[in-house]
Amino acid sequence: MTSLVAPYALPSARGVVANHLRAGLSTGALHEQRGDWPALVEAARDFSGAAVELAALSERELPGLAAFLDEDPWLPFRFVSVHAPTKHLELGDRALAAALSELPPVVDAIVLHPDTLADPSAYRALGRRAVIENMDARKGAGTTVAELRAMFERLPEAGFCLDVAHVWSLDPTMALGHELLDAFRLRLTHVHVSSVTAACEHVPLTAAHEELFCEVLERCVDVPWILEAV
């Protein structure tokens, strides 16, 4: 199968990001193949074998992903995360947490958006695989150290995923990124990397943003970086 990713990957990954040995791709960036998990994994593998994030952003995509993973496919990645659904949520927290907890052990991390969790304690079922992501300027929860600390009090085993573009949407100086790392660096499992528009839509990383994000990213060199746009 011809890769849809490799010809377009290098222009969006420059400097510090291109040189990071544990960079990988989010399948959420591959809109045309959405739902075709074998094709998505192959495209992500063509980009990098270091890491991948399997993005079931709609609850309707989760059964297909679970079925795919239950077939024990070959996943050559050294780090595998799943982005839990944030759209079309119908199951409720208890049922969704139960479904996520049944994902096989090959999944290292399960990323949760704090603004979608009505009952955060339900996700204790995920144990250490639960990972809380900081939110962008559109969201009413999970954007500050205080808001995230309250979430971690409900999920004491959870890890932390730093989204640098979300930080920028709230604080273009990126001081917030350092505050979040000062507070939660020991929980850090991986980083989301992209640029965002004024409407907080993920787009390929620009050279200007990469330079701006550099100091924060340099504090995260020991964890995978997941590109959310190619």
Automatic annotation (TrEMBL):
InterPro entries per UniProt: Xyl_isomerase-like_sf (IPR036237)
Protein's recorded name: TIM barrel protein
Taxonomic source organism: Solirubrobacter deserti
